[in-house]
Specification:
The chain is mostly helical. The chain contains 13 helices and no strands. It starts with a helix and ends in a 7-residue tail after the last helix.
């Protein structure tokens, strides 16, 4: 197991290196640059000399591969993602760490809500196949998959404001300051993210439960006269959850993308909003750093998912 974990951690290095190259280059294909953004705000009517001075000051006067080498060199030699081009006094990783709790809370709540909805509904739909409850659960799953998160988030803000003169809380309340107030801020965006996660997970749970319930060892348990709850809980659920965990790991990038949208719609100061602001300002180091952190998180979660297989299935052994 230790050797497997070490190999996977070593494989993360070329993966993240490739991601860093792609992110560093792709952001530069967006029309405009940080100096254009500065000219549009602080340096209106700037001359060519001003642009040249700013490029020299920000380190943009050298070729792209040299800029990339400097950025990677700072990470390897100094362990830093660099600083924002907009003149922030703190480093990029410090800004990310400040906003990380918001994004983590939103994501963990969405996952918890999704699992609370998906697992019971998926298991019950499989046990009561082709009943009214099964049809209702499958229909809700299709609706959840077909409903865009950003559209639902906008509806939640716009229509209650028109009909009842009420809007969800869009002012950040820290968890340490007010537990209930913090939950009130996060519950609606978490529900919106969790519904999509629940829809996909519920369909997979139902499918795998149906497959497991057809296995011979489950039929043997039924033939022994065991109660339904014992057969389902002790013999079926654990094996059915292995593909569900795989799907949950694959849904992480979707949750990250959804968190970027939800944070901007509901004014949450998380990493997703930091990324959007950096994109608008063409803050290249910030965009590259945030995307690299997201990529590292996805790779790490995939490793955790693979390790969970050995816990759920004793037949799985990593060497």
């Amino acid at each position: 197991m230790k050797a497997y974990i070490i190999r996977r951690l070593l494989l993360m290095i070329p993966t993240l290196l490739l991601v860093s190259i792609l992110v560093f280059l792709l952001i530069r294909f967006i029309p405009g640059d940080v100096i254009d953004a500065m000219f549009a705000s602080s340096y209106r009517g700037g001359s060519a000399e001003t642009r040249a001075d700013l490029e020299r000051f920000l380190g943009l006067d050298v070729p792209t591969h040299v800029q990339y080498a400097r950025w990677i060199g700072d990470m390897v030699l100094h362990g830093t993602l660099g600083k924002s081009l907009l003149g922030s006094a703190i480093t990029i990783e410090q800004q990310i760490l400040r906003r990380l709790p918001v994004t983590l809370e939103l994501g963990l709540l969405a996952i918890a809500i999704g699992l609370i909805i998906a697992l019971p509904v998926g298991i019950y739909s499989a046990i009561r196949r082709n009943t009214l409850a099964d049809y209702a659960g499958r229909s809700l799953a299709v609706v959840g998959l077909a409903t865009p998160n950003f559209w639902l988030g906008l509806l939640v803000i716009v229509f209650p404001a028109i009909w009842w003169n009420w809007t969800p809380p869009i002012r950040m309340i820290a968890l340490a300051d007010d537990l209930l107030g913090n939950l009130g801020v996060f519950i609606i965006p978490s529900l919106i993210l969790g519904t999509y996660f629940a829809a996909a997970t519920m369909r997979m749970t139902r499918t795998m439960m149906l497959e497991v319930l057809r296995q011979d060892y489950v039929r043997t348990a039924w033939s022994k006269g065991l109660r339904e709850r014992v057969v389902v809980v002790r013999h079926a659920i654990k094996n059915a959850l292995i593909p569900v965990i795989t799907l949950a790991g694959l849904q992480l990038p979707v949750l990250i993308g959804g968190s970027v949208i939800m944070e901007n719609i509901f004014n949450l100061p998380g990493i997703g909003r930091l990324l959007v602001d950096a994109l608008l300002d063409r803050d290249y180091p910030m965009v590259s750093g945030v995307n690299l952190v997201f990529a590292a998180g996805v790779v790490a979660i995939n490793l955790v998912v693979d390790l969970l297989y050995a816990f759920l299935d004793p037949r799985v052994r990593y060497r």
